[in-house]
Amino acid sequence: MSKAQVSLRNKDILGLETMSAAEMDLILDTAKEMKNIIDRDIKKAPTLRGKSIVNLFFENSTRTRTSFELAGKYLGADVVNISTSSSSVAKGESLRDTLLTVEAMGVDIVVMRHEAEGSAQFAASVVKPVIINAGDGAHEHPTQGLLDMFTIKQYKGKIAGLKVAIIGDILHSRVARSNIWGLLAMGAEVHIAGPQTLLPRGIEKTGIHVHNRVEEALDQADVVNVLRIQRERQQKGLFPSAREYARIFGVNAKRLALAKEDVLLMHPGPMNRGLEIAPDIAYGEQSAIQEQVKNGLAIRMALLFLVLMGGTHIEAAN
Ligand code: CP
Questions:
Q1: Does 144 count as an annotated binding residue?
Q2: What is the pTM of this model?
C-alpha cells in the first residue's frame, strides 16, 4: 500500500503488532510537522477545535498523560482528565460503565491507560469513540514505541538496518513489546538482554536476538534503549538485589562504550537512576531521553490529528 492510501481516520490505536509500516511512516511524518508547532512561541493550531478528548488513566503517569493533554490543547481540542482516585471508579464503578458514561457525553477520543492486558481492545469493543491505548498492563504502549522510533529516525536518519539493544525488564514491559513490533516492521535488528527471569519465554520467535549478557546486546549497537525495573509488577525474587542488578545488568559508561561511538541512549522514563541506568550517562552526551519526552508530544499530536481528521498534512495554523 502506498503512503497516500493510508488513513488512520476513526481507527483505534491499540498496538504496534497490528499496525503496518506504512501507517507508522504516516504517523512519523505527521509528527515531524507537529514538532514545528511545539517549537513556536504560540503553540496553538485550530485544527481540532470543537473536538473533545478524555484521558482515562487507571495507572499513574507523568509523560503520557501530560503530553496527551498538551497535544489536544495545542491543536485546539477540549481535553478532560479522569484518574481512578478522583472518579467514580473509586466508588466501584466498572470499566465498562465508566466507558459508557464517557461515551454518553459525546467525546471523540478516549486515551486510556489500564493495568489489564487487553483492556484497550475491550474498550474499543464497548464504545464508539476512538480508543488510543496509553498502556495496557504489560501488553503494549504504542505511542511510546512510536516516539522511540521517531527519536531514532531524528538522530540516525533511518531505522532499517540499525542494531537496537533493549536492556532490562522485558517481561513486564509494554514499552519493550511495542518497540519490538515497531522496530521489526521498520527493518531494525533488535537485540534484548536482561536476567533470564525477566525475559519472556519464546520471545525469540518474533525474530529478535535474545542475550543473557548485556555486553553481547550492547556490542556495536547503534541504539540502546534501557528499560525501567518495574517493581510494582514484579513478584519478589526475580533478581537477587538492586545492587546485584546494577552490577550485572545496569547500563553504565563502561558498558555503553561497547556500543558504537555515536550510540544513541534512550529510556522511556521514569528512570531508576543507579539501578538500570547510571546517573552520569542518563543525561550525558549520548542521551536522547529529554528529546524523547518532547517527541512524545509531537507523536501524540500527530495521532490525535490523524484519527480525527485523516490525511497526511496539517492545515496551516493561524
Ligand atoms: N514512558 C511513560 O509511559 O511514562 P509515564 O508513565 O510517565 O507516562
A1: yes
A2: 0.95
